[in-house]
Write a structure and sequence with these properties.
Strand content: 5-15%
Structural class: alpha+beta
Number of helices: 14
Distance between the termini: 30 Å
Shape: elongated
Order of helices and strands: HHEEHEHEEHEHHEEEHEEEHEHHHHH
Largest sheet: 4 strands, antiparallel
Number of strands: 13
Length: 498
Amino acid sequence: MSSHARWLIVIVILSAFCLWVASPPQFKGVQTEACAAAASDPLANLKCSENLEVDLNGDGVYEFVLNITQSLGLDLVGGLRVLLQADIAAENFSPDDLGETANNVSRRVNALGLTEATVQVQGRDRILVELPGVRDPEQAIATIQQTALLEFVDFGGLANQVRSLVGLEIVTSEQVALRQNTVLAEGEADPLAQRRAHPVSGLPFRTVMTGAGLQAASAVLSPPQGTGGPEWMINFEIKEEYQGIFGGFTRERIGEPMAIVLDGEVLSAPIIQAELSTGGVITGQFTEEEANTLALQLRSGALPIPLRIESTQEVGATLGQESVRLSVQAGVIGVIVVLAFMLIYYRLPGFAADLALIVFILLNIAVFKLLPVTLTLPAITGFLISIGTAVDGNILIFERIKEELRAGLPLDAALRAGFDRAWTSIRDSNLSTIIICGILFMFGQTPGASIVAGFAVTLAIGLVLNLFTAVIVTRTFLYALVSVFRATISQNRALLGA
């Protein structure tokens, strides 16, 4: 089997996969334990959040449904834009701390079902969160505000007062340390002033470990014990570098309560049953919803930097459904015109280019969904420009082939020379534009310029894929067509556009 035949098989399989991703079918499969849990608790396993097993027919039999959706930007579907401000002076944290804080915010909003959220660092001390399609701004803002300081706090000696402290706001040693670096606005009240201190000493409660020490946390249902039924609890794991601290504390405090505090509020205060060096179990007569919520807060509630809401803005869909429909329609018409031009002007090579262009479009759509890339109007524009660049590469190849034929080279030699000698021009032109895309992407990280980054990303993806389709795919299709119509071509060179 020749190399062109092998490439043809690869291209056909790849195209079929991209078409499947572009319009995903329902796929019935064997129910897994993880996704069975996710059917009742979508937050328990993020892996199943997009590929959920659901009871499609209402017969109690769950079927696996692949759901690959395209992320759309604020200008297409509307939503909410939230600007978060670091609540401590910028000189007291590093850019890495701000980046890790943005990652934690992203995990929180995505885990709550906001899978198209965009979280971006803005400047030295701000984080911009864009939530396309959000219809309940108050809930979204509350979710982001909850993403703050998580602490494991020493409640030793307070076993009789635990119930009265759960749900209240307390002041801890970690909060006091952070407060020393916080810059309060003029007239702003100290948030720690109204929180409760230790009822015996009057000092702040001691923070044993913050959420930065957590490796993982998940809600699980315990097996029935005795006459009692199963209970919901939380399994958690500790990072290796924190195991000595946490293990030593829990070893010395067996039988004493330890509080789990988020944003200063006591979420629960379970009794320490054994040494917890690598992790353990949190119990507290939780309901299923409470256990899942607490597990989520433990997984992604800790932020290296405390944040406050600087501003919020509800954004309407600036294009609207009718404008989106017209934009898509215009794009389809443009592609059809390009396909027709290539076929009419270049004949058989043009037909090969048309097939390669269809593969190119399918590849782009699949990549946009699988990464995923959030599509905004500028991002769509970048994609359409990349289609023009893909056609431009084919034109360079075909014109070179025509020159070689006019110079008297045999057909096979002319095809080979056309692709080989046009390759350097295609490579250099695409690489130079990719460099420009990189510069645009960097400028797109500055406040107010995020739409530039979307344009740069889709254009760069198209240019990279064009290096594959304009040479490998077009070459494979053209050689296949020539092998089928070689006798006809030898009698009529006009089929090659020459």
